[in-house]
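TA notes, week 10

Several of you asked for a full example with nothing omitted. So below is the full record: structure tokens for the whole chain, then the designed sequence directly under it. When grading your own attempts, check the secondary structure regions first.
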């Protein structure tokens, strides 16, 4: 059998942060993840288990203590970036209040040195993709939270990343806006074919969005469950199959928390 390398390979990843006067904080413990190109992989884990730390390492903003991340065949670190273009969408929109929507989306494109025509074209296309074509000349504070988050999504997509890292992008929104944005997010994923890593602690959201779902344990994080979500798109949030899956992932999640608690007690 011919073994092909995954698009994103995370092998034996371990990360600890030094602490003054104490043992280092063990955040990621021997984490293995292999992601195929074009996947929408949700990473589900308890709060504080190291999900953002993992995204930072994949994005070349921090180094693992040991272990390796490879993207499209090249090792990633703070010193050796891969050729893969990475876009990021955060929990908060992080827009510049003094720039219009258009100029917020244009900023990273200007930093990339793209010609003005290309920038104008991309800003127009990606604002249309997130349904904000008519709001290009608004300032962020003139928009609702959900609309600001769409601008941030347009900004992340406009650089045309090969890999999009989404760090709880809908968790600060009200449920109605989050629902609409999740549906748009899946449509954009289907239209653009991007590889997406989507970090969340919302089990229903992860089940609804993903082509694959990874549950990681509390610190030190390791893979507890890795399962494909084969329910075809377009999905309805109230689909029985999704509801059944959510129930079983919730049970797995609770079992995992109990197992980690017992392990911690035994090593105390
Ligand atoms: N630069 C740092 N220096 C020291 N400790 C850090 C640093 N970054 C993160 N940590 C610690 O690592 C742990 C994991 O943090 P991280 O932000 O990755 O978790 P998370 O799973 O994304 O959390 P949440 O779901 O609440 O956003 C936390 O205990 C945090 O305090």
């Amino acid at each position: 059998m011919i073994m092909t390398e995954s698009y994103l390979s995370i092998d034996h990843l371990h990360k600890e942060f030094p602490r003054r006067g104490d043992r280092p904080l063990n955040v990621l413990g021997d984490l293995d993840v292999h992601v195929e190109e074009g996947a929408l992989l949700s990473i589900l884990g308890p709060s504080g288990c190291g999900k953002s730390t993992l995204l930072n390492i994949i994005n070349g903003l921090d180094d693992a203590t040991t272990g390796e991340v490879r993207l499209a065949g090249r090792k990633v670190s703070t010193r050796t970036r891969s050729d893969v273009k990475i876009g990021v969408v955060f929990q908060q929109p992080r827009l510049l209040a003094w720039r219009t929507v258009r100029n917020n989306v244009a900023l990273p494109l200007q930093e990339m040195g793209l010609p003005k025509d290309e920038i104008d074209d991309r800003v127009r296309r990606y604002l249309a993709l997130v349904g904000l074509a008519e709001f290009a000349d608004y300032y962020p504070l003139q928009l609702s939270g959900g609309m600001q988050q769409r601008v941030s999504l347009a900004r992340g997509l406009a650089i045309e990343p090969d890999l999009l890292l989404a760090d709880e992008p809908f968790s600060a929104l009200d449920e109605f806006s989050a629902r609409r944005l999740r549906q748009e997010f899946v449509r954009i994923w289907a239209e653009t074919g991007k590889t997406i890593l989507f970090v969340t602690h919302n089990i229903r959201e992860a089940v609804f969005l993903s082509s694959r779902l990874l549950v990681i344990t509390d610190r030190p994080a390791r893979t507890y469950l890795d399962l494909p979500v084969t329910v075809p798109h377009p999905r309805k949030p109230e689909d029985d199959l999704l509801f059944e899956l959510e129930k079983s992932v919730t049970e797995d999640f609770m079992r995992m928390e109990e197992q980690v608690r017992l392990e911690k007690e035994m090593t105390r």
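Residues 17, 25, 27, 45, 47-53, 201 surround adenosine-5'-triphosphate (CB under 6 Å). Use that as a sanity check on your answer.
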